[in-house]
## 1
Amino acid sequence: MKKWMLVISTAVLFMVGGCSFLEDTSSTLNYANDAKDYVSEAQKFAEEIPPLAEKAVNDDEAIKKLQEMKGKAEEFNQTKAPDIASDVHDQLVQQNEKIISGIEAYEANIKDGSFNPEALKNSELFQSIQDVSSIMKQIKELGQ
């Protein structure tokens, strides 16, 4: 009887440990998918930003799109990354902070009339969005 209890107890311990492993794997895959979706949105935003920023001078809808991207970056920064993805997440958060501050700077420049569309191409905002895109390879590796 004692041997059966020992066998059952050992089996239960292995099952509980296995569940934790499955949860970690699931969490990593979910994070990788969320990160890929966010980076895809950032890449699309990078393509749209030059004409979008120019339109934002006179178009409230364009300003809303800038604010939406800022909101998405802020939301992604609040995402809880699994331990295995913490380095990638930290890189994305650093770039997102630059994106957020860049959008805020453009909003301020648009409001005070000092916006220069040509400066956008060489800006930290534009570079940060490209850096976010380059992190995509690391994110894809998480999903494998």
## 2
Amino acid sequence: MTSPLLSRALSSRARDRVSVPDRFPTLLVAGLVGFALICMALGSAGARAAAETPQEEVYLNYQIGLQAVAKCRDVTLSHEQQQRIGERIDGLTGTAVGAGRRLFLIEEAKEIINAKGCDDPVVTSGLAAYDANLASAAQ
């Protein structure tokens, strides 16, 4: 048998354990809301800073055109064609855009096309840049 004092101490600890799970949903919701707000803030900052320099802006425009050719015109480019086009883009933009930024801008171009669609002026501008400066490299 346990003493009444020990019994009260055990029941007090049991109440403490019960109260934490009672507060858990509130803490979970508050944490998730805070996480969502941080993600939204970072996402909007990233969208505004897609192209940070004029060279990146040109690179992004060419990538929009290149990605739009595949998606909007249903053109499949071979590896060799993509490589020649990549070399042409490098020649037009120089080495000012680093490899990590290039990958980011390529993904950004894909997201822009998916979000805006093929008829959006940003996408048609990219297609015009592709036609004027890159299409000949694909042949």
## 3
Amino acid sequence: MSNMHTLGFLKGIFPVVPTPLQADESLDLAGLGHCLNFYMASDIQGITVLGSGGELPYFSDAEQLRVVKHVKHIVQDKKPIIVGVIPIRINKCPPQNASSCF
């Protein structure tokens, strides 16, 4: 996707993909793969994960990274991916940018 360095690629439909969980509340990466494959087979322009669905603050940093790596593995470079990465707690803000968290 050679034009991903510009904002021009942010046109069209970018559905929010839910992050499924197992019964024990661990990540269900197989379920996430099924969701992604469903969306990838449709005529969407990109994918949104860990954001507007509201689950971001409930996952650890390690879980968030696992989700992003899994999404990247499945989507590859076929469609743009928007990832929610907002710090929810003040202790997650880098010290030099702490004021930007308010």
## 4
Amino acid sequence: MSSFEHHHAMCNRYVGRAVVIGTRDGQTHRGVIQGVRNNKVYLQPIGNQRNSRGIGFGFGIGYGGGWAFGLGIAIGSIVTLALLPFFFF
């Protein structure tokens, strides 16, 4: 299983859960996974998102045909993915 396939499967498994994602460029993103589409995972940011600066925000189609707002992160850029405990909210 490739790194892409591994992270894609983990993102699908953790939809609706709070996670922290580290990317190849050194950024860290905290949020709730709203959905996974093709090669991107969409997060609803939580906490102070210093690195986001509004770049990469967009709309994605949610489950049931609705729209969800979130941060789109390329799955191929993910280096680490971990669940956040409830007290990080």
